[in-house]
Each structure stands twice: as structure tokens, then as C-alpha cells.
Amino acid sequence: IPSARDKLIAMGEFFARSLHEDIELYSALVVFWESSFLDASIREMLLNQYRRYDTLITGFLDDGERAGEFAVSDKKTYATLMIAMMEGVVIRQVLSKDIDLETIRGNVAHVMNRLLPALDGRGSAQKTGRKRGPWRTGSRV
Q1: N- to C-terminal Cα distance for the chain?
Q2: What is the reported pLDDT for 120?
Q3: How far apart are CA 122 and CA 77, in angstroms?
């Protein structure tokens, strides 16, 4: 895979495809989350998995910055948000089974491109037409 951005997109697309192909596996993940509240060993196992995901994603972000693809001010937070978005899709699909996962998979690149604006030739993010999200203006969503 040629670029860090492409690797992040491929990761998200793989996740959506695997959720579509093996919902039972992801249903078990919800049980693990619940069990982690009562069992410290399961909680530690899940936390170790999160650490691996964080390392993988922040590594891709480091690669993208070095290559001049994008700049991320807080890679740990970005990794947490990316994982949380994927887990939100898991929870929704496990509970309702009504998400069109092919549409989700088809929109991964769009979401990644919005979250990681390309850098222009001077090293600054290109303007996307939207300066602030509602969370910065004090309004509630």
C-alpha cells in the first residue's frame, strides 16, 4: 500500500468488510467488553489489544507526517477516535443488524480524507471550507 493515508483507509475498509463477513465474531467482542468489567484478566487483554491498535495507527500517522501527507497534532487522540468510530459501528450492527456495511466501507476514504486534510506545498493544511466543528463554537449537536 503506497501511502500512510491509503493504509489507514485500507484498515477501515478491512474492518467494515470483516464485520460484514463475520458478525458473530464481533458479537463476541461485545460479550468481552461486558466481561472486562468483572474480570481483570479480560480487561488487561482488551487493553493490550487497544495498545496494539494505538501503536499501529500512530505509526501510520507518523509515516504520513514524515512523507508530508498530513499533520496530526495529537496522534493518540486521533487513534482513540478512529477506534471508537469502528467500535460504534460494531455496537450498532450487533444490536440492529441494519447498517449497510458496503456503504460504510465505500465511505471510509471520504471520512479519512476529511479527518486528515492534505498538506499544501508550504506544509499547512489545505482549507476544506469548514473552519470549526460545532463543538468549538459552543453549540450542541
Answers
A1: 36
A2: 67
A3: 25
